[in-house]
Amino acid sequence: MKLGIVGATGMVGRVMIDVLENRKFPVSELYLSTSEKSIGKELIFRKKGYQTISIKELLSKKPNIVLFSAGSYISKKWAPEFVKIGSTVIDNSSAWRMDDEKKLIIPEINASCLSKKDKIIANPNCSTIQLVMVLYPLHLEYCVDRVIVSTYQSVTGTGSKALIQMNKEKEGTISFEEKIYPHPIYQNILPHCDDFLENGYTMEEMKLVEETKKIMNNRDISLTATAVRVPVIGGHSESVNITFKKEPNIDHIYDILLKSKGIIVQDSPQENIYPMPFMSHGKDEVFVGRIREDYSCLNSLNLWIVADNLRKGSATNAVQIAEFLMKKKYV
Ligand SMILES: NC(=O)c1ccc[n+]([C@@H]2O[C@H](COP(=O)([O-])OP(=O)(O)OC[C@H]3O[C@@H](n4cnc5c(N)ncnc54)[C@H](OP(=O)(O)O)[C@@H]3O)[C@@H](O)[C@H]2O)c1
Predict the structure, then answer these.
(1) What range defines the domain where residue 160 resides?
(2) Ligand 1 contact, 93 CB (< 6 A)
(3) How remote is the CA of residue 11 from the centroid of ligand 1, in Å?
(4) In whole angstroms, what is the distance from residue 194 CA to residue 229 CA?
(5) Is the CB of 128 under 6 A from ligand 1?
(6) Is 101 in the same domain as 206?
(7) Whose Cα sits closest to atom 31 in ligand 1?
């Protein structure tokens, strides 16, 4: 399989390379592309060095699959060019997620809706993936009515410049030009992920609402979100309150989650066992714990979800989509 990555030097792009290697994805030729400033950099895949190239040069290689991870402007501009030459694009940006013509895929949930005709496939937002991985199997049994989610999102979710800001604030060497958040992030918390919209919510919060409904193919679920940036290097956490249409049985809830592919239940509070972002680093699974009834509201429960935003939240999910396309011979 001839494979290209756009944004290969980024936080997600680098993890995509690792995930392809870890999962033994069959790559016959690999092409890694970056912005102009990083062309010629060497990145390692399977102990071999690869020099990064421009997107134009990548296009000339006619890859079978291209993983895009360089922001929505680049995806909007270049993904259609790759489709013209026969490539299938898996896009990690927000460019196509809410496009009615494009599918928004979490392989464990809705990959079966894909066909050979899907040439641009959207990877959901990191905070959406970990939420829906847990919501969906519970929805099948108990029918989700309303969700209240508060996120605790790590700085790597913003990209490599955010990590530089936090590290330099810690060292006391930050310059004005290096700040990408409007306030310090080191030893601080920002109730602010992505840009604010006119409705008072941020784009990240509305992505959680709209993408969840699209993936679950259900416009009736009520969902409200508060997305918060925390000074954690990697791994997003979410406090989630769910109200179901049917009365949930807690033992059965555990059973469903224990049997769900891609989910690990960590829930022994007496032994201080619960999901934490630090422990999620480099893991492909979504971790869930603190599962308990909400005594303030009928048919409701609270739980805590953690995942590595650079793995299942982005790179792993994209590579799983590529694996599915290969298995079905759609590429
Ligand atoms: N970080 C996450 O947890 C996460 C999760 C889900 C989705 N995403 C999405 O994934 C994408 C990448 O995020 P990231 O965190 O990896 O960002 P990042 O660390 O800032 O990396 C951005 C990558 O895009 C490349 N790039 C930037 N401008 C470009 C241009 N004009 N032409 C070609 N390449 C260009 C960069 O190349 P240079 O090295 O040359 O600058 C770099 O490889 C974004 O769309 C983001 O929303 C991120």
Answers:
(1) 127-309
(2) yes
(3) 7
(4) 10
(5) no
(6) no
(7) 35
**Cβ-Cβ contacts under 8 Å for 238 (sequence gap 6 or more):** 127, 130, 131, 149, 150, 151, 152, 304, 305, 306
User: Where in the sequence numbering do the catalytic residues fall?
Assistant: 126, 236
156 and 290, same domain (yes or no): yes
Q: Is 74 near ligand 1, meaning CB less than 6 Å away?
A: yes
Claim to verify: residue 114 and residue 136 sit in the same structural domain: no
- How many CA atoms does the CB half-sphere of 279 hold within 13 Å? 12
CATH number reported for the structural domain that contains residue 257 in this entry: 3.30.360.10
In this prediction, residue 187 carries a pLDDT of 97
Two tokens, residue 193: 């992920």
Question: What residues pair up with 47 in beta bridges, in sequence order?
Answer: none
Q: Which of 11, 127, 151, 230 should be mutated for ligand 1, with most atoms under 8 A from CB? A: 11
Strands 65-68 and 88-91 turn out to be parallel
Query: H-helix or E-strand containing 316?
Result: helix 316-327
Q: Is 150 helix (H, G, I), strand (E, B) or coil?
A: strand
pLDDT tens, 15-53?
999 999 999 999 999 999 999 999 999 999 999 999 999
CB 231 near ligand 1, within 6 Å: no
Spatial neighbors of 35 by CB under 8 A, at least 6 apart, are 70
Whether the CB-CB separation of 52 and 25 falls below 8 Å is answered with: no
At 95-118, the pLDDT tens digits run 999 999 999 999 999 999 999 999
- Residue 229 to residue 239: CA distance in whole angstroms: 14
Atom 21, ligand 1: residue with shortest CA distance: 10
What's the CA gap between 150 and 153, in Å, rounded? 10
Where do runs of H (alpha helix) occur along 100-249?
107-110, 126-142, 160-171, 203-215
